[in-house]
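=== RUN LOG ===
request id: a7f3
mode: sequence -> structure
chains: 1
length: 82
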Amino acid sequence: MSKTVLKRAEMLGEYILDTGATVRATAKVFKISKSTVHKDVTERLSYDNPQLYRQVKAVLEKNKQERHIRGGMATRKKYKGI
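=== RESULT ===
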């Protein structure tokens, strides 16, 4: 794996950890695909920086548990016309 890919994975992981952002939000900020973000922080980061990987994994699990709430809020917002 190239150093730039590993560096990007670490940068994405640090961003998710600092902001608590979702994979989708992170992809939008860095202007890359969701698939790339997900692969970087789940696979590549585990080899390069296991400690950061565990911390990011915890944030992603929290986001996963809350996603049904965000979806409900989006639907509510849509039908209220906000």
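=== NOTES ===
Helices lie at 3-19, 23-30, 34-48, 50-80.
The radius of gyration is 14 Å.
=== END ===
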